[in-house]
Amino acid sequence: MKRLAILLVLAIVVAPAMLLAEPWQATLDANLMATQNAYSNSWTGGEAGALSWVTNWNFIAQRQFNARWNSKNTFKLAFGQTHSQEQESKRWMKPVKSTDLIDAESLWRMTLGLFVDPFAAVRQESQFLDASQPDNIRYGNPLKFTESLGAAKSLFKEKDRELTFRLGAAFHQQMDKGVIIDAAGTKKDFTSNSGGAEFVTDYKTPVGSDKISFASKMTVYKAVFNSKKDELAGLPNQNYWKQSDLGLENTLVANISKYLMVNLYLQMLYDKEVDPRARFKQTLSLGLTYAIK
């Protein structure tokens, strides 16, 4: 109900601006990468076949409704699996997930011509398939919602180059549904709420030519309150939620031809509540691509 009320208020405030809106500016980048090899059960030498595939979809829609209202909506979807043969029998085993992401954000800015622009944003993060408990597969889980508001500043904004900073208050809601908590298979939903300050940087630029592009996003979040504070009191991890969270994504894309591309993706996450160590992910792929500009 709280989110519905916020959306209703935004709709009432923004509706008059839509009457004088400029057309939507939309871009879509989609790609599919796959590698495959297989062996018969008469093959000797210990080799085993594998099939790996991953698809990425990045969609951005922007619109300047009038001189004061700007909207930017970003959708990132990714999913991939690896299928492997058993070494001795060459029987294909159950696929293992290699990539999984659902990330949607809607950002509203008041472009008043000031040094900074007031903004409000809503973001949802999840995944298609939660296999953290192999005997308890869940879909669209876990869920993380972020509502933020504050000030934004674009140092430069061109057709293919942009650098934007955002600083403001942020509120997080996290939900982990249907978690098995005992041997009897009892399931329980876990939720938590927190609030604090968030700093976000978005950067994109061509590299050398229009066939190579680089994009980077950094998010730093510092919580000042957490709904689980009392439950964690006295435990070794009671103060982990106070540590700043860091997320960094870097993507380098080289278009070899109209439908062929190379993609290098690097991600670093640090959230002490999840793991005291930083988590890293790297993907290098060659595959088919399709873009709408």
**Structural class category:** mainly beta
By DSSP, the count of extended strands is 14
Shape: flat
The averaged pLDDT comes out at 87
Adjacency order of strands in the biggest sheet: 1-2-3-4-5-8-9-10-11-12-13-14
Number of helices: 2
Rg, please? 22 Å
Tell me about this structure:
- The structure is a single chain.
- The protein is mostly beta strands and 293 residues long.
- It has one domain: Outer membrane phospholipase (ompla), Chain C (Beta Barrel).
- Helix content is 7%, strand content 62%.
- The chain is built from two helices and 14 strands.
- The chain has helices spanning 2-18, 229-232; strands at 25-37, 50-64, 69-84, 96-110, 117-126, 129-130, 138-139, 143-157, 162-180, 187-207, 209-226, 245-255, 260-270, 279-292.
- The protein has a twelve-stranded antiparallel barrel with strand order 1-2-3-4-5-8-9-10-11-12-13-14. Strands 6-7 form a two-stranded antiparallel sheet.
- A hairpin with a 1-residue loop joins strand 10 and strand 11 (209-226).
- The longest helix is centred in the first third of the chain and has 17 residues, at 2-18.
- It is flat.
- Residues 16-20 have low confidence and may be disordered.
